[in-house]
Amino acid sequence: MNRLKAILPIIVIAQFCCTSLWFASNAVMSDLVINFALAETAIGHLTSAVQFGFILGTLVFALLAIADRFSPSKVFLISALLGAAFNAGILWEANTLATMLSLRFLTGFFLAGIYPVGMKIAADYFEKGLGKSLGFLVGALVLGTAFPHLLKGITNVFPWESVIITTSSLAVIGGLMMVILVPDGPYRKQSQGVNVSAFFGIFKNQNLRAAAFGYFGHMWELYAFWTFTPLMLKTYNDLHPETNFNIPILSFLIIGIGGLACVLSGYLSEAFGTKKIALISLVLSCACCLISPFLFAIASQKLFIAFMLFWGMTVVADSPLFSTLVAQNAAAEIKGTALTIVNSIGFAITIISIQLISSLKTITDSNSIYICLAIGPVLGLLALSKKTK
């Protein structure tokens, strides 16, 4: 029992270390723009490259049922080592936008063997209290995603390369922790081989389908919000010259506070129900999208920061809940495949919303463009409001 209690913190720390690869280039984007003569629009393209790599990776992992056929901890380690290597490739002095897009794509591809596989490992250990466990796990993802911004904020005296080196090193450490300290879980049921019918038949389950569509709506908003958080802070700075935000540190806090929200939502789901808390979170984040243009006009930086922190919490609080609903409604032998394919589609949707906001930024200076992010939560709420079995 004591060993079981130690497993979750190990998975959480390993997940945090490895998912720091996700936004490593975003945190040093201004340096990349200067050193490699990139256009300002590169932030959207490089972020989308990671997402696209993750999508293709999750499709490959799901079609081949890798997380269900092989030891998830070993899959996690191999993915962490390769992800760290391609992340470190950003340091190459001869990089162009094309080579950096390729490197970020490959980093995203191997993140497919980290994030959903980490959830699969947790599901193999925690049949009861899965919502709370995944709350900690997704919270680790959120902190890992935000961490490069913190590194950038506290290492201004060091070259930008230190952020890339640190995130790659952490990924290696996280992979080794997982394979050494986390053996296959007691609830793991090994798949006997590639099951293409299972891959395509996942959405026949009505409850799983409702959870998946709720997750898709949530993802439309989430990564676009994370991607453009530094830009939103800069926009407010420019509109209010008396303001002097430390953008990297604030970006870390706004994204990172979502980790706390994931843990909180996990506990609340045990008391009030997983679906109910997911619905509330979607409603609140949708409201943030709709009122966001008005906050840019208010000359109170404290109010704006408080709003962004609240948005940072509500935008991701439902993420572990949707993953819990997917895992609970999938057959044991295809649980890893179900989590992976739902992740894959969800991340495909993030590319559309990120590129939409990027395109809108080129044709208008209006801050009303962030209202578009409400489309996802609205559709997610419609999916979840339908009666399920």
From TrEMBL:
SUPFAM superfamilies linked: MFS general substrate transporter (SSF103473)
Keywords: Membrane, Transmembrane, Transmembrane helix
Domain Major facilitator superfamily (MFS) profile, chain residue ranges per copy: 1-389
Pfam families in the record: MFS_1
Record's signal peptide: none
GO molecular function: transmembrane transporter activity
GO CC, alphabetical: plasma membrane
Spans through the membrane: 49-67, 74-92, 98-118, 130-151, 163-182, 212-233, 245-268, 277-298, 304-326, 338-356, 368-385
Name of protein: Predicted arabinose efflux permease, MFS family
Organism of origin: Flavobacterium degerlachei
